[in-house]
Amino acid sequence: MHQKDRSHKRPLEEKRCLACGRAFSWRKKWERVWDTVKFCSRRCKANKSKTE
Question: Cβ(26)–Cβ(13) under 8 Å?
């Protein structure tokens, strides 16, 4: 397979974590809940009260 053949994929969506500000990309496991995902990791989710 040539590199050209892979160009049909579109870039993944990105969001910013509300706790740390880091950019994170869409993941298959978040497919159904992507609109509600706000944090990049469990650690950031656990520390959310420190940023609010």
Answer: yes
Whole-angstrom distance, CA of residue 44 vs CA of residue 40: 7
3-state DSSP helix/strand/coil % of the chain, to nearest 5: 40, 10, 50
List Cβ neighbours of 22 (8 Å cut-off, separation of 6 or more).
16, 40
Domains of the chain: which residue ranges?
Answer: 12-51
pLDDT of amino acid 10: 82
pTM (2 decimals)?
0.68
Distance (Å, whole) CA 13 – CA 49: 26
How many residues can be counted in the chain?
52
